[in-house]
Design goal:
Elements: H1 12-28, E1 43-45, H2 53-56, E2 66-75, E3 94-101, E4 106-111, E5 117-123, E6 125-130, E7 172-177, E8 183-185, E9 191-194, E10 203-209, E11 236-237
Antiparallel strand pairs: 1-2, 2-3, 3-10, 4-9, 4-11, 5-8, 5-10, 6-7, 6-9
The chain binds alpha-L-ribulofuranose (RUU) and cobalt (II) ion.
Length: 253
């Protein structure tokens, strides 16, 4: 009997060429890349099984949950608020990120109890799927906002093997292109997106959003205007394994 072993990590050589190529592309496209944005959390692999993406390589077109995030700004808006408004500050602020995904690769299904985000395609095309209705998780303090209904999924929208169920509630679909107006994904709407597998270029998307509460090392306390925000994780991934990737990269060497 032959046993199939799946790659469960990435070599440093693969990781750094992925991240350095992506940051060079971002710089060429005019994004303000700074040295401190390049680290072991810049490339995100959403769970141990998703390292298999590196076996066939990032250009294979195969569906895996693997992406780059370069974050140039994450500012909470907390000072000068009227009294009584402070506790709502965690819903505001301003964040600017550039996200880069290779053909077939996905940002996995998730929603944000607080963050509203918007997308502007800088290079390539973007397949977005989302939940047309907001998630009711009992935690809501603000209205969710309306995301216009898209169409049904087109044929051939391949999602990662073993994670199919986590995509099921994201029934609305839209394809975004460079030059489209920003598409707003309001808080509490499930969303995921990918680069089409037949693309000749990686998908590059600029995300402008409210403050991103994320449990990454890069989010040092310097960027957190309120101490208790360090305990907030505003990314609710549908698949339990998807959360792992935010915390550390698994190196094979
Ligand atoms: C995009 O939808 C995003 O929210 C990024 O900003 C990361 O937080 C993960 O997904
Ligand atoms: Co999101």
């Amino acid at each position: 009997m032959t046993s199939v072993t799946q790659q469960r990590g990435v070599t440093r050589k693969e990781y750094w060429s992925w991240v350095r190529d992506a940051s060079a592309l971002a710089t060429a496209l005019g994004y303000p890349v700074q040295a401190e944005m390049i680290n072991e959390g810049t490339g995100i692999v959403f769970g141990e099984d998703q390292y298999a993406a590196f076996e066939a390589g990032l250009w294979s077109g195969d569906p895996f949950e693997v992406m780059i995030i370069l974050e140039s700004l994450n500012e909470g808006a907390v000072s000068g608020l009227p009294s009584g408004a402070e506790s709502f500050a965690e819903y505001g602020g301003l964040c600017d990120k550039l996200m880069i995904l290779h053909p077939g690769k996905w940002c996995p299904p998730h929603y944000h109890p607080r963050k509203t985000e918007s997308y502007e395609v800088v290079l390539g095309e973007m397949d977005v799927i989302y939940g047309p209705q907001p998630v009711d998780d009992g935690s809501q303090r603000l209205a969710a906002g309306h995301v216009p209904a898209g169409t049904a999924w087109p044929a051939g929208l391949e999602v990662p093997a073993g994670r199919e169920e986590s995509y099921e509630k994201l029934t609305s679909y839209v394809r975004l292109k460079k030059g489209d107006p920003k598409f707003v994904m309001h808080r509490r709407h499930l969303h995921a997106f990918r680069c089409p597998p037949d693309s000749s270029v990686p998908l590059v998307v600029r995300e402008i959003s409210t403050y991103s509460h994320e449990p990454t090392e890069a989010q040092s306390d310097i960027h957190r205007p309120l101490a208790h925000w360090s305990g907030i994780n505003d990314n609710a991934f549908v698949h339990p394994a998807a959360d792992d990737g935010r915390l550390a990269t698994r190196f094979l060497d």
